[in-house]
């Protein structure tokens, strides 16, 4: 038999004899690779598709001019059209218009409509030009026509020549579907109108959203951009397509990175299961390897054999993971959409593209992680001295190096240092490194803790101890290394499950409590707003206030502001705020000016936590915001907690906003009911108003329920990872205890020889499994709790710029702990039935 044949024979024999342990290790590796690969495929496909769809809206423009505070005066257009170096200028008005009959309170009940100059668009954005019926080319310029993309027609269930009703403020606009578009990307729901007709029909006369510029040949884009920015001043921003792509990337970067990191953590967990499987396999075959060494197998050949076994695990598991990951990605696109339920990339239908280089990268990561878990067992197998290894009872000494606590303490100290380091490129890189070091250190400390704990419990035995209990404690106290290895994968799975459960529960409970604070009114009334404009004018406001069903009515005005072209817009809220003590109105973090100390002549603003992280705003400093004509100065009076807007929000007094802008319209009305008045009665009264049919009315309870539904949909992948951690933990329990019991057949044979009964051996195994699992649950809970602190207080603030208190999901944790405990005890007993069979009595003959 040559070396290659012998290697294959040893590998196949091991896999066939202990297929359960091998299957669990393969599942762990495959699951980690699959989750990481699928999440990357989905996010990459969705981002690329959304970026391409956004680029198609800009056409072939070189530069775009936007107003920092939304719409701007259209008189800028002729100035730019005649500017030196500009070949063509294209004015655009873009609105998100509500569609009657579509579900309210969701982003998917609005249709994006673009008003363009059809003649100029043919040269700068030809994809957006409408395709009218043959012989009716003038429909492109008609005041009552609209052109829809295929996805929009399907969503609205209309065809060419049908009539479409849309809400514009408090009025209903009826338009004729004159045709489709030259080209629109799959899933892109957009509509196009003549810009003049759109300004008139949607009450946006004299304003534009942006102006697209195509420069003359030979003009330096960077120099022209810098010059034009200086000419236009702070009220406008000039961007290129690359700026828009960077902005889109920044929108979802934190979410994408965190999902990828969680998936890699799942793969990292597989490393410990591989280590556990391989280490126990090496211990069980210690005498077999020693015999091979005596028969002429060299140390290098033995090292190569064990590494080959790990490599086979990695290759097989990674290949399965790639296939599973691709299938998961395709299924997730169908079920959750390209945004995984987060609405970062709305209205896109990406197709999954399998990049061989990318697949090879994830395959290499899976194989590398597997080999990482296989290194220590392989080195131990090659370094063992044959004479000592042939003797029974030397199994635990094979892993004696694991009991030294110094390596674990170094890892834990490194984790502590990492938690104090700042983010890298606004990402919690050191936070995730701290989690990995905490996992490694916690698991490496297991042998030391196991030996000392069970030694102490053994010493605490009564004068007449129970034989089974004493034997179990003696085994665990004097052979702690095997027990610790068996619990390595279990501890990793359970601790990560605990950490994710605490993090998600803390976030969900915090959001629920936050919603109660930010939605105190009984009803919220909004208009079917067009873009960033307000819909309720003074007369409509007075009619709502005059209704006898309400005891209090507050008015809100929201709009978007652009502070940094490379970042998503921030949200400005103009509303009544208790100036003396904002805690009566807003969910403040505690970082506020002393109540009553703001001078009367100063305009205060209250900023969200994201504004502090992203823009450096601090309580007590003065900031400039593009509100009104140009920029105006405000005093930061405090920081409030905002879970709804990741990229920043500012609250200011409605009176200050109206004084600066002259805009007396509002977007939202918050209404408190009179005692004895039901929500249905108040809604009926609102519908009786002349403009009642154009109102969107929601109760605070419905809005809270919808917000929590969106939260659950956004964290669907996290829930899936949490369940996978539980399943892997249960499988790890079965595989680890099964492997450990099979390695102890001689020990059980000796116990049977000295008179220990079969049921006592089974009881012994059940007690050992229970004690080990209890220890694993306690340590896993402590380790998971520590990891959850990093997730809640470091990863979340550095990724999403919000803070939250810790909330413990005790029922869930107790349920999983009980399941693990029962599974461990049952597995130990079931596996032990073979170990205490009649054949086990003859196993000791090998030592005679």
Characteristic key phrases:
alpha+beta; 848 residues; single chain; 26 helices; 10-stranded mixed beta sheet
| Low-confidence blocks of residues | none
Beta-strand share of residues: 15-25%
Q: How many DSSP E strands?
A: 22
Fraction of residues in helices? 40-55%
Specify the number of helices.
26
SSE layout and pairing:
Elements: H1 3-17, H2 19-58, E1 63-67, E2 72-73, H3 76-81, E3 86-98, E4 110-116, H4 118-124, E5 130-132, E6 145-148, H5 150-156, E7 163-168, E8 171-181, E9 190-194, H6 195-201, E10 207-208, E11 210-215, H7 221-232, E12 236-239, H8 241-284, H9 286-294, H10 299-336, H11 356-383, H12 386-389, H13 406-418, H14 429-444, H15 446-459, H16 467-478, H17 480-518, E13 523-527, H18 538-545, E14 550-561, E15 570-575, E16 588-592, E17 604-608, H19 609-615, E18 622-625, E19 632-640, E20 649-653, H20 654-661, E21 668-673, H21 679-687, E22 695-699, H22 700-714, H23 716-742, H24 745-753, H25 758-800, H26 810-835
Parallel strand pairs: 4-9, 6-8, 15-20, 17-19
Antiparallel strand pairs: 1-11, 1-12, 2-10, 3-4, 3-11, 5-8, 6-9, 7-8, 13-21, 13-22, 14-15, 14-21, 16-19, 17-20, 18-19
Helix pairs in contact: 1-10, 2-8, 2-10, 2-11, 2-23, 8-9, 8-11, 8-17, 8-23, 10-11, 13-14, 14-25, 15-16, 15-17, 16-25, 17-22, 17-23, 17-25, 23-26, 25-26
């Amino acid at each position: 038999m040559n070396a290659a044949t012998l290697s294959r024979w040893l590998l196949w024999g091991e896999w066939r004899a202990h297929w359960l342990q091998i299957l669990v290790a393969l599942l762990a590796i495959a699951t980690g690779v699959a989750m990481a690969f699928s999440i990357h495929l989905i996010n990459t496909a969705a981002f690329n598709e959304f970026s391409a769809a956004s680029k198609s809206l800009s056409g072939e423009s070189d530069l775009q001019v936007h107003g920092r505070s939304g719409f701007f005066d259209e008189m800028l257009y002729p100035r730019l059209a005649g500017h030196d170096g500009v070949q063509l200028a294209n004015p655009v008005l873009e609105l998100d218009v509500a569609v009657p009959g579509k579900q309210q309170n969701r982003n998917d009940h609005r249709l994006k409509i673009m008003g363009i100059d059809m003649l100029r668009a043919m040269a700068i954005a030809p994809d957006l030009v409408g395709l009218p019926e043959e012989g009716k080319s003038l429909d492109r310029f008609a005041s009552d026509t609209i052109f829809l993309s295929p996805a929009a027609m399907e969503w609205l269930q209309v065809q060419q020549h049908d009539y479409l009703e849309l809400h514009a403020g408090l009025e209903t606009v009826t338009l004729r579907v004159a045709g489709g578009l030259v080209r629109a990307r799959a899933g892109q729901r957009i509509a196009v109108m003549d810009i003049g007709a759109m300004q008139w029909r949607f009450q946006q006369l004299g304003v534009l959203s942006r102006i697209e510029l195509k420069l003359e040949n030979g003009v330096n884009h960077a120099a022209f951009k810098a010059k034009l920015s200086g000419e236009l001043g702070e009220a406008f921003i000039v961007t290129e397509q690359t700026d828009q792509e960077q902005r889109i990337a920044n929108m979802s970067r934190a979410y994408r990175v965190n999902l990828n990191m969680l998936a890699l953590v799942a793969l990292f967990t597989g490393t410990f299961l591989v280590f556990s499987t391989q280490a126990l396999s090496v211990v069980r075959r210690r005498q077999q390897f020693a015999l091979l060494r005596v028969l002429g197998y060299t140390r290098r050949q033995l090292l190569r054999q064990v590494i080959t076994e790990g490599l086979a695990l990695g290759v097989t598991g990674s290949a399965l993971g790639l296939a599973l990951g691709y299938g998961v990605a395709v299924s997730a696109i169908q079920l959750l959409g390209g945004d995984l339920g987060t609405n970062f990339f709305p209205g896109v239908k990406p197709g999954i593209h399998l990049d061989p280089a990318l697949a090879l990268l994830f395959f290499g990561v899976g194989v590398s992680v597997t080999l990482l878990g296989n290194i220590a067992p392989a080195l131990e197998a090659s370094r063992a001295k044959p004479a000592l290894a042939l003797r029974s009872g030397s199994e635990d000494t094979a892993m004696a190096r694991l009991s030294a606590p110094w390596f674990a303490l170094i890892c834990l100290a490194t984790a502590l240092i990492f938690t104090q380091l700042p983010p890298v490129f606004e990402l919690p890189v050191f936070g995730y490194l701290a989690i990995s070091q905490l996992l490694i250190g916690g698991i490496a400390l297991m042998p030391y803790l196991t030996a000392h704990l069970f030694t102490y419990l053994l010493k605490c035995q009564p004068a007449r101890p129970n034989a089974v209990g004493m034997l179990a404690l003696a085994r665990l106290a004097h052979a702690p290394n095997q027990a610790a290895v068996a619990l390595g994968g279990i501890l990793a799975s359970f601790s990560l499950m605990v950490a994710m459960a605490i993090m998600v529960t803390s976030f969900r409970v915090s959001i629920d409590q936050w919603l109660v604070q930010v939605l105190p009114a009984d009803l919220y009334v909004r208009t079917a707003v067009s873009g960033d404009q307000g819909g309720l004018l003074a007369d409509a406001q007075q009619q709502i206030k005059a209704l006898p069903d309400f005891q209090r009515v507050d008015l809100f005005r929201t709009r978007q502001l652009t502070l940094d072209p490379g970042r998503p817009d921030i949200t400005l809220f103009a509303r009544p705020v208790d100036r003396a003590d904002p805690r009566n109105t807003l969910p403040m973090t505690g970082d506020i000016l002393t109540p009553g100390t703001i001078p009367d002549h100063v305009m205060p603003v209250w900023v969200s936590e994201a504004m502090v992280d992203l823009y450096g705003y601090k309580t007590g400093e003065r900031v400039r915001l593009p509100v009104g004509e140009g920029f105006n100065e405000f005093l930061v009076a405090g920081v409030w907690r905002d879970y709804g807007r990741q990229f920043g929000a500012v609250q200011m007094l409605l009176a200050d906003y109206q004084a600066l802008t002259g805009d007396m319209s509002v977007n939202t009305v918050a209404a408190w009911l009179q005692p004895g008045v039901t929500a249905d009665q108040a809604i009926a009264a609102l519908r009786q108003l002349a403009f009642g049919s154009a109102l969107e009315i929601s109760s605070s309870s419905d809005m809270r329920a919808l917000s929590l539904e969106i939260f659950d949909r956004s964290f669907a992948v996290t829930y899936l990872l949490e369940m996978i951690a539980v399943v892997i933990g249960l499988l790890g329990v079965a595989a680890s205890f099964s492997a450990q019991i099979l390695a102890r057949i001689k020990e059980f044979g000796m116990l049977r020889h000295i008179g220990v009964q079969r049921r006592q051996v089974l009881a012994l195994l059940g007690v050992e499994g229970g004690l080990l699992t209890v220890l694993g649950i306690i340590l896993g809970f402590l380790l998971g709790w520590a990891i959850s602190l990093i997730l809640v207080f470091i990863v979340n603030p550095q990724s999403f710029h919000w803070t939250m208190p810790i909330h413990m999901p005790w029922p869930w944790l107790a349920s999983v702990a009980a399941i693990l405990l029962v599974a461990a005890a049952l597995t130990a007993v079931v596996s032990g039935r073979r170990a205490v069979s009649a054949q086990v009595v003859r196993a000791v003959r090998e030592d005679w």
